[in-house]
Design goal:
2 domains; 2 strands; mainly alpha; about 450 residues; two-stranded antiparallel ribbon
Length: about 450
Amino acid sequence: MPGRRWSRQELLGAVPTRGVTELIERLKGSFVGRCLRRFVRMAGLDRCIVLSSQAFTALIPLLILMSTLAPADSDATADTLVRRFGLSGDSAAAVYELFDTPAGASNGVSVSSALLLLFSGVSFTRRMQRMYQAAWDQETTGIRGGLFAALGLCALLLEVLVLYAVRAFVRELALYWLWILPISIVTGLILWTSIPYLLLNRRVHWRRLLVGGAITAVGTALLGIATTVYMGPLVAQYTADFGLFGVTIALIGWLLVAAVLLVSSTVVGAEFDAAESPYLRMVKTRLRLYDPGAGLPLADEDLADAGLTKYDVVMLLRVLANWMVMAAAVWVATALLPGIHVHGGFITYLALSLLFGLVNAVVGPLLQLVAMPLSVLTVGGSALVVNGVLLLLTAALTARLDVAGLGSAMVGSLVISIVTTVLELVLRPIQDLDLDLDQEAGSGAAGSG
């Protein structure tokens, strides 16, 4: 019927993914799902831990060697770490003490120290090589792979020195803060495209590595900004708790974050290269992100049709929106009521809202069934008690939420309900607009047919 407004239930009834199980299966076939499956298949978490630990064992000999070679009146390593992490006070003093060179120490380089440094560096690039090979489904190689790992180490050190010199030059320019981010991304793109190209024994064309290199470059640039903001307080806290060992703990954590970034970016780049969806194939064709000599492989129709539909995406976005609404409602309740306290920040509110929703879904129907006879006598007041009990139960399951008693829980649940209702009324016109657009698109397609 022309002009007929479809109800939400009618439109969602036409969505092919009616069940949660089917939606999960389609999520597995989406690009994000395939990236997660590739990450799990290559034991990505284990590789992150191995890479960070190997980087630490390779970094410590290098820092010790730099401290030994530095002039007696200069602490180049400590100065670099203090400036890079924005340290001051006791944390900066701990770093200087950690890398302090004894007065009688020799500044020469022995054969054993040079071999130790070389062995540590090659072991690190060898681990990186195996990570790239696992992500790109390449077979491991023997002596040839070791030679390319050594070549990758030389290229990595050379490019890092060049990039450090470029950034040092940029720091002398006017409006340094405006130039540093794009220059860091461009230089990082060169670094993280050439290194995997060498470590993969040049068996993967460099154009196919550009996406992973670009993601890694952007991620490392943002990590550099986050390092200057968060590492200073973190090192200060760990130094106060653990002394000199706290600097080591903070450095290991920073290397682990960098390893997670590197492995995740590599997985996304490899999955992008293997993706068969029409949109991604169009992007690869227009940007020539494939081997020009081999061209794009023929599309697999099963893979091209796999993944989420636009209705699935809308449904997932609505779930996320409802999650954010619940988190905002919990925050308002804690801000207004003195009897409710949350220990934590944004992530804690998200976790608490998710836990509160699970408690409502599992225990809520049972409590409502028990309180149903009382709801007639209390004219719906029992629902307020039930919601308060659910909030108390949520607080009992986590140490992040403190509720003073049943009265505070009842008032808090009332505030959460009111804020949730108001926010849903604000967001509902936007959701209805999306439904109207989908309806018009479907009507247009039917008319043209």
